[in-house]
Design a protein that fits this description.
The protein is an alpha/beta fold and about 600 residues long. Strands 2, 3, 4, 5, 6, 18 and 19 form a seven-stranded mixed β-sheet that branches. A five-stranded parallel β-sheet has the order 8-17-9-10-13, covered by helices on one side. Strands 14-15-16 form a three-stranded antiparallel β-sheet, with no helix packed on it. The N and C termini lie far apart (about 65 Å). Bound molecules: NADPH dihydro-nicotinamide-adenine-dinucleotide phosphate.
Length: about 600
Amino acid sequence: MREGGSGGFEPDAVHAKYLAERDKRLVPGRADIRDLSTDARFAELRADPFTPYRERPAVADDVDVVIVGGGMAGVLAGAHLRTHGVERIRIIDQAGGIGGTWYWNRYPGVMCDVESYIYLPMLEELGYVPTQRYASGEEIRLHLQAIADRYDLDAPALFHTGVTRAEWDEEAARWRIRTDRRDEITSRYYVLAVGILNLLKLPAIPGMETFAGSSFHTARWDYGHTGGGPGEPLTKLGDEVVGLIGTGATGIQCLPPLAAAAKHVYVFQRTPSAVGVRGNRTTAPEFADRLTPGWQQERMDNFQAIMLGRSVEEDLTDDGWTRHFASAHHPPRRKDMTIEEIMLAAEENDFGIMEAHRRRVDELVADPEVAELLKPYYRYLCKRPCFHDEYLEAFNRPNVTLVDCPAGIDEVTARGPVVAGQQYEVDCLIYGTGFEGELTPLARRAGHEIVGRGGVSLAQKWADGAASLFGMMTRGFPNMFIMPAPAQQAVVTVNYTQSAILGASFIGDLVGALEQRQAGAFDVSAEAEERWSQKIIDSFIDASSVMAACTPSRLNLEGNPQAMKPRNGNYGRGLGDYFKYRAVLEQWLADGRLEGLELDERSARSARS
Ligand code: NDP
């Protein structure tokens, strides 16, 4: 992709075009969803197509730590706890195995567009080097499985099991955990590693329930229907017309293999993604040969520094994230600029990046009308960017038709979607419609009631927003940890692995320290929680005026950026300052006073009994 000169940047014309594109999409009900936790007609779309459900006797036991979630966060938390000598760890997950997002998302073409050498955790510990610059979902899932095996987390885990309730038992100084398989487990520590985008989102399009063909969400790919498997051609679609709804990071990845297999694919596009170069390649043997101890942390920190706009000697990752995402969020500026000049320069810089993406569409898509519809007209920072080398080219195939529907799909009939009065007849309808986002509170994502001291639930306590120490512990919920997540008073990292490692190592270190001093239950002091929450509120930057001009998306809360609560912000401005946050955690642990925690020494004996 040619780099983004911003020639032709006329602010008024650009504003008018972007706002017009936004307004086409700001239609009532655009974010309405089917609530799969209550809507029985669609609830089966959440079922696990990958691992058969097996009956097992209910478990009744007492452990050191229960971790809810066997994805990257849960596995890393478990691994770090193990390195601190914690013995009895039970991961509980609704999935049939380890992997979290990589367990569920096995759609064809699934991969991670964050570089594998920084995304796959614990590469040095496991002596593993990913086979490609951007790893497939299957390689990532198997790697997480390898970590789970290395730290003996898989065998004691309870899969296909949902926690229904967790309640702090003051007397026993333990969490009492019940599951939908009648397990009753007590645990000294409770770790919520439930994931961020863990609830699949099914839109509320009228008539969906009347569709007569097969339908499924990309996070539950039905290989029984399509044939094939992850990384393998789809063998059963040769006679089928497929409708793919959604052109986000998922939709763009699964289109090329679908197009290669199906008789015809209709791609229903509400908003075009900005699709940059991916540039995948096989890992060269010399790459592994050159690695020296500590390389992975160094590479992650290099990436993270660039994401935070810091200058580095060398861009080790050198991809669309470090070039475009970093530049859009930290545009070049001179010292003597006024606020207005800074804002204008940022817009011009962003325009240049988007122009490069729009030119890429022209270069790759043969039909100029289709190309025009595939061009994203909004600021780069408005939506999560995408990276792919085969998506745009797929529209040159005679069996792929783009159906542009900025205001959404009118309805779904027994025969398929209807857009602008036109019926599209399909045999199979695939929802690549994403996941519930930042507005979904932790308690809903956790999917069970979490009841702390005095019978207060986490949902009640956080009803007006998060309140925590470090975004990981909250008063009234002793011995409970929450893995860092957006909108929860921690930090957000483009490479999610880095925030997962932060959380996991903090939990491991703190539990290790508590065990060493044979402490009883800990709780967060009211002052510490207030102080931390106030820091979050004080550093909150209200970006709603910029984000309100965006085409609606998860990042601007579907056109309601003002709905973001300051207390649900991050540590540091914007996405938060990862390095400062890490230093705060490290210093706090190193100083050993555990300032801000109240240790209940009386419970020490019962905790250990
Ligand atoms: P997204 O939310 O990004 O995209 C959902 C798509 O469905 C959008 O195109 C959306 O349109 C469309 N859509 C939603 N509702 C409707 C509707 N009612 N009618 C028509 N279209 C609709 O979900 P994804 O699964 O693509 O990605 C979710 C997140 O998962 C990403 O943001 C990313 O964080 C992560 N991910 C990461 C990957 C990686 O490589 N690292 C790969 C895949 C996912 P509109 O844009 O208009 O809302």
